[in-house]
Amino acid sequence: VMAASKPVEAPGGGGTAGLSRWQLALVLGAPVLLGAGAIYLWGRRAARRGKGASERKTPEGRASPGPGGEGGSGQPDGPGHEEMSPLGRAQAAKNKGNKYFKAGKYELAIQCYTEAIRLCPPEKNLDLSTFYQNRAAAYEQLQKWTEVAQDCTKAVELNPKYVKALFRRAKAHEKLDNKKECLEDVTAVCILEAFQNQQSMLLADKVLKLLGKEKAKEKYKNREPLMPSPQFIKSYFSSFTDDIISQPLLKGEKSDEDKDKEGEASEVKENSGYLRAKQYMEEENYDKIISESTKEIEAKGKYMAEALLLRATFYLLIGNASAAKPDLDQVISMEDANVKLRANALIKRGSMYMQQQQPVLSTQDFNMAADIDPQNADVYHHRGQLKILLDQIEEAVEDFDECIRLRPNSALAQAQKCFALYRQAYTGSNALTVQAAMKGFEDVIKKFPKCAEGYALYAQALTDQQQFGKADEMYDKCIDLEPDNATTYVHKGLLQLQWKQDLDKGLELISKAIEIDNKCDFAYETMGTIEVQRGNLDKAIEMFNKAINLAKSEMEMAHLYSLCDAAYAQTEVAKKYGLKPPTL
Predict the structure, then answer these.
(1) Where is this protein primarily located (predicted)?
(2) Cβ(343)–Cβ(321) under 8 Å?
(3) Is the dihedral of CA 41, 45, 48, 52 positive or negative?
(4) Which end of the chain is more exposed for a tag (fewer CB within 10 A), N or C?
(5) How far apart are CA 478 and CA 259, in angstroms?
(6) 399 closest CA partner among 388, 239, 510
(7) What gap in Å lies between CA 365 and CA 351, rounded to an integer?
(8) Which residues pair with 362 in a beta bridge?
(9) CA-to-CA distance for 302 and 304, rounded, in angstroms?
(10) Cα distance between residue 468 and residue 546, in whole Å
(11) Angle, to 10 degrees, between the axis of helix 273-282 and the axis of helix 289-298?
């Protein structure tokens, strides 16, 4: 996958139903499969069917109609006014308020609703809650948000599962910038409406994203840089083939020394921070690479361009994009540097921009890389993945084709081209092209039986097609080829949930992923999602927090905070209202 993002995962562009991942944490009452880079919700249809009820601007008519609908249509000044019960008089005042409301006379409506509240017998909870909710609706029209929230609170105290009052209070909290309170209310609404109303889901999504961004910005700024696991680093570098800095020590790097002057050669090595850094790379002693590269840069040594690119790459790997950028900028502007170094720096900066959600800058960098080094297969391979993320499938396929033309043995590009064609066919619901794409996967795994990514991507497509048994076999092949790839265990674990609803087996496989790589944020995130679905919200929050501490970008961290906040809001709603979504 693109540089500076999870390399072991397949590309993909957002959930096929256009839903956000927080809904996993708010539970759609169905298990989920987190695709690589994309999310597939098994319960998509429920959400897609969402009623999208248009917002009701009018106040409520009758409250729960009692026998004969007391006072439901009575006019306050009509005959028999004297004999009316207290509730009847309150209903009449409310009806008068409703007329003023519909006429846009909100101050007068408020006076009538206040009168209804005063007249209503205190034991008539449901009627009283309606009057408060109606007065809140009038205050809302006057943008008096504090009064809206106060009246909705009264309405909810009298009728704890009053969806309309909860949603109106959520919107008032949003205006008052009380994000946490807004989230709690809208979470309760989502659960009460069984995730069927588009409006409440959109508000939940909006406030979760804002909370996530806010928290991630603060946390990411002050985070301790964290070196990923050796598996992750090796997998990252394996996505490049035209990358000088990740090649083993080359003869070219010792070209100044004659073969018979070995002593001098080791002396050069001693004095070259870059060559020492390369030695540490081979020894998997990754923590020393930034400091050794810095020595080369400060000495303005022979390998300064290489050292800048190597240092930038490790800054990206530890999640420090702001430190990586000036190094990448400098390499890109070095007109006399090796073009392969400049193209590689452009790929990495372009991928960094994509992670920062700046697709225009990202596209510019990839296009410039293709201009300066048109024979560099890596450019097309990584740009192809960018195009998938941007949902430009045809252009992605063209890039993969160019990569394959330049490097016919690139199993990775062939597998990803298949995946791109499959996504195109699947989203277009074209059964014939889906079949052709599935056949394409068969051809790739036959031609490249040692390419784990081919099996992994095929497994995702098979899962989509509900061919679970065969998908499971594909994940087993991946594990045989790459037994230390934690991500495959996570995908296989999720498959057990979808296929057999086997939570224990699923969790066992994801625990195995953590055993292999205890820095696998994807495993903790997935475990958190499963714990939400089991109703173990405290455990879920613990898992999301572990993932947050391992997040490789601010964007990823913001997304994880959204999941965590969604789970936390559910625990609060469960405490307050005894409301829980369905669990597995």
Answers:
(1) mitochondrion
(2) no
(3) negative
(4) C
(5) 43
(6) 388
(7) 9
(8) none
(9) 6
(10) 30
(11) 160
CA distance 254 to 237: 23
* Domains recognised in the chain with CATH numbers: 86-222 (1.25.40.10), 227-245+271-373 (1.25.40.10)
Can you list the pairs that 204-208 forms with residues at least 24 positions away whose Cβ atoms lie under 8 Å? 204/22, 204/26, 204/566, 205/20, 205/22, 205/23, 206/174, 207/174, 207/179, 207/182, 207/183, 208/20, 208/22, 208/183, 208/562, 208/565, 208/566
Between CA 59 and CA 299 the distance in angstroms is: 74
Contact 531, 519 (CB under 8 A): no
Residues 439, 443, 448, 451: what is their CA dihedral angle, to the nearest 10 degrees? Answer: 0
Long-range CB contacts (within 8 A, 24+) of 102-110 = 102/58, 104/141, 106/138, 106/139, 106/141, 106/142, 107/142, 109/59, 109/134, 109/135, 109/138, 110/135, 110/138, 110/139
List b or e across 481-511, with b for residues whose CB sees 16 or more CB atoms inside 10 angstroms: bbeebbbbbbbbbbbbbbbeeebebbbebbe
* Contact between 289 and 310 (Cβ < 8 Å): yes
User: Taking the complete model, does pTM exceed 0.70, yes or no?
Assistant: yes
Ramachandran bin of 80, using left for φ above 0, alpha for ψ from -120 to 50, beta for the remaining angles: left
Contacts of 445-448 spanning 24+ positions with Cβ under 8 A: 445/474, 445/477, 447/411, 447/414, 448/411, 448/414, 448/415
CA distances from 440 to 37, 429, 435, 471 (A): 21, 17, 9, 15
What phi, psi does 32 have (nearest 5°)? -130, 155
Q: Are 93 and 115 in contact (CB under 8 A)?
A: yes
Other beta carbons within 10 Å of 301: 17
pLDDT, one tens digit for every residue, the chain (584 residues): 333 333 333 333 333 233 344 444 443 322 233 332 222 222 222 333 333 334 445 577 644 333 333 333 333 333 334 458 999 999 999 999 999 999 999 999 999 999 999 999 999 999 999 999 999 999 999 999 999 999 999 999 999 999 999 999 999 999 999 999 999 999 999 999 988 889 999 999 999 999 999 999 999 888 888 999 998 999 899 889 888 888 876 555 543 444 444 444 444 445 789 999 999 999 999 999 999 999 999 999 999 999 999 999 999 999 899 999 999 999 999 999 999 999 999 999 999 999 888 999 999 999 999 999 999 999 999 999 999 989 899 999 999 999 999 999 999 999 999 999 998 898 888 889 899 999 999 999 999 999 999 999 999 999 999 999 999 999 999 999 999 999 999 999 999 989 998 888 999 999 999 999 999 999 999 999 888 888 899 999 999 999 999 998 888 999 999 999 999 999 999 888 888 776 66
Number of residues that this document lists for the chain: 584
Are 193 and 583 contacting, i.e. CB atoms less than 8 angstroms apart? Answer: no
CA angle 46-529-188, nearest 5°?
55
DSSP state at residue 28: -
Rounded Cα distance, 117 and 229, in Å:
63
Residue 219 structure tokens: 């946390």
Continuous segment of H or E residues that includes residue 345: helix 339-355
Q: Alpha-carbon distance 430 to 560, whole Å?
A: 34
